């Protein structure tokens, strides 16, 4: 399904959350589609089942998935996902970074190039690596 970077500074559960979000938002995983069981995914990825469970709990808290007792976890309806608070926080963070970048001499064209590269990366399904 996907690979994890075990040497990354980003915790494994966050990598899982990011990858599942990516798969859901790009509609690779469809609404009401069942996710792999915690046990089988942990075995496939050779990681602790508690790590998978933590990622699933985070995805459920963010509204990307829902769980049915005794059945498993499933993809939520995309329109039900409320990212308003996250988007507001990201906007503020981006504003601060952009002001700093302009202060240091970055041009509008350089900013646009970064935006285009980021969008292309997301559309291709590349994982985000903060390093």
Protein traits:
5 helices, two-stranded antiparallel sheet, 2 domains, 131 residues, Arc Repressor Mutant, subunit A, mainly alpha
Describe the model.
The protein is mainly alpha-helical and 131 residues long. It has 2 domains: 12-80, Winged helix-like DNA-binding domain superfamily/Winged helix DNA-binding domain (Arc Repressor Mutant, subunit A, Orthogonal Bundle); 84-128, no CATH class. The protein has helices at residues 12-25, 38-45, 49-61, 84-103, 108-124, and strands spanning 65-68, 72-75. Strands 1-2 form a two-stranded antiparallel sheet. A hairpin with a 3-residue loop joins β1 and β2 (72-75). α1 packs across α3 (49-61) and α2 crosses α3. The longest helix is centred in the last third of the chain and has 20 residues, at 84-103. The protein is elongated and about 55 Å long.
- Give the overall shape: elongated
What is the annotated CATH architecture of the largest domain? Orthogonal Bundle
The CATH topology of the largest domain is Arc Repressor Mutant, subunit A
Tell me the distance between the termini.
23 Å
Q: Helix- and strand-based class?
A: mainly alpha
Strand order of the largest sheet: 1-2
Order of helices and strands: HHHEEHH
Name the CATH superfamily classification of the largest domain.
Answer: Winged helix-like DNA-binding domain superfamily/Winged helix DNA-binding domain
Please write the CATH class name of the largest domain.
Mainly Alpha
What low-confidence regions span 5 or more consecutive residues with pLDDT below 50?
A: none
Strand content: 5-15%
Please tell me the overall pLDDT: 87
